[in-house]
Design goal:
This protein is of the alpha+beta class. It has six helices and four strands, in the order H-E-H-H-E-E-H-E-H-H.
Length: 181
């Protein structure tokens, strides 16, 4: 069962050098969002069964998600978060959902919503069998958060609220609970 302990986000104040990062990013010489790690919500023995044995579609999908994140960040105010946690659920190539959270700082609710909407419209990979889920730990503007969440707080809140113990891996039961058809 997942702990229901609340996470605390600590707002960070932009520094002179962080503004320089923003300027470099806007000129196109630096990426605002950089993928640090991917976590699969599928048991190890099922990764190849569900994602397939060719890792290229997953790499391409991750790259597309990061690219779109950079596009959204370029159009808005620079977030004060050090990172972005992006959880992705895929039921089919045309049926994906994205949950985003700021890590160690703040991102406006509007900007988080825009990122989620934009990422949900990126053409997803095709699961080979059953739904798939994974999370991306993303650093923002060259900063490195100390710790990322395991799953989105929204998932934890829903499970605690309804007192439903749900396994995150594999995501089959979880998705029927938090993302019904």
């Amino acid at each position: 069962m997942i702990s229901s302990a609340p996470r605390i986000t600590i707002p960070t104040k932009p520094t002179q050098s962080s503004h320089a990062h923003t300027a470099l990013f806007r000129r196109g010489t630096m990426q605002a969002a950089r993928l640090m790690c991917t976590r699969f919500y599928v048991p190890q023995p099922e990764i190849k069964i569900r994602f397939g044995s060719d890792i290229n579609p997953m790499k391409q999908y991750e790259n597309s998600l990061i690219s779109r994140t950079n596009e959204v960040l370029a159009r808005g105010e620079r977030p004060r978060a050090k990172g972005l946690f992006v959880a992705v659920g895929i039921k089919a190539k045309d049926n994906a959902k994205v949950w985003c959270e700021a890590v160690e700082g703040e991102i406006s609710p509007y900007q988080l919503e825009r990122i989620e909407e934009e990422l949900a419209h990126v053409e997803a990979l095709t699961p080979q069998r059953g739904p798939v889920g994974f999370a991306m730990e993303v650093s923002l503007f060259g900063q490195r958060p100390v710790k990322y969440p395991i799953v989105p707080q929204l998932w934890i809140d829903a499970m605690v609220r309804d007192r439903v113990p749900v396994l995150v891996s594999p995501p089959d039961t979880l998705f029927t609970f938090i993302w019904p058809d």
